[in-house]
Specification:
The protein is of the alpha/beta class and 238 residues long. It is built from seven helices and twelve strands. The strands form two sheets. Strands 1-4-5-6-3-2 form a six-stranded mixed β-sheet. The chain has a six-stranded parallel β-sheet with strand order 9-8-7-11-10-12, sandwiched between helices.
Length: 238
């Protein structure tokens, strides 16, 4: 199966890969003229043939447009900021699992030092998302938003299905919340270590979110991301 790379745009029947992606192609993969790769501009996918490899750019000729379809289920992930190794692993796997958008949350129980450093990590996070999207052969990159407060993120629900994971023993299991539901747009909120505060929980419920549990076991944040996204995809038809 051919590797896929993202380009900023298609220029007629040509495309250019530059920067870190060009370095990866030219140095790591040792790309050469004549080799074929798939290229996406976030909307369309083309089969491209390498025409020229330079130090910081790779030029392609576009040969034919390939079938491209976004997942029917569009999920926005509200992910509380946790220790960066876990957070970065979580956004990588969320990208592979098809989320449309990632919003880092400055939850009340997120470590303040991590929130303060989050802006400086945003470029690294975008690189992780890009590489995961290319590896999983996505058509479109997920949007990575600036850090937001949970209360503000909850109010953006609109007509979408909203779910926030909870550690409360009386919270219904996610399977029950999703039972017999049909939704193609959803927002999933995952709290920090220690869970949501009472104020954050009330804000989510007031905004129209459903509280849900992943069961009796308490999962790490990154584990909860994978488990809940897999359940959403299964229950909602992806």
């Amino acid at each position: 199966m051919r590797r896929r790379f993202f380009v900023e745009k298609f220029d007629g029947q040509r495309a250019l890969v530059s920067g870190d992606r060009a370095h990866h192609l030219g140095v790591v993969l040792r790309a050469q003229a004549g080799q074929l790769y798939e290229l996406s501009d976030g909307t369309r996918v083309y089969l491209g043939r390498i025409e020229k490899v330079a130090r910081d750019s790779v030029e392609f000729a576009l040969l034919e447009e390939l079938p491209a379809q976004d997942p029917r289920l569009q999920v926005v992930l509200l992910l509380s900021v946790v220790k960066f190794d876990a957070f970065e692993w979580a956004i990588e796997k969320a990208t592979e699992l098809g989320v449309a958008e990632i919003v880092p949350l400055a939850a009340a129980r997120s470590e303040k030092a991590l929130i303060a450093a989050a802006e400086k990590r945003s470029e690294r996070w975008r690189k992780i998302v890009l590489e995961a999207a290319q590896q999983s052969r996505r058509v479109r990159l997920p949007a990575l938003q600036p850090v937001a407060r949970p209360e503000a993120a909850f109010t953006a629900l609109g007509d979408r299905l909203g779910i926030f994971l909870s550690e409360r023993v009386d919270a219904p299991v996610l399977r029950t919340v999703l039972s017999n539901r049909v939704a193609y747009e959803a927002i999933l909120g995952i709290g920090p270590e220690g869970g949501w505060t009472d104020e954050e929980r009330e804000a989510a419920l007031k905004a129209g979110f459903h509280e849900a549990s992943l069961g009796r076991l308490i999962l790490r944040t990154e584990t909860a991301v994978i488990a809940s996204l897999a359940l959403l995809s299964y229950a909602l038809g992806e």
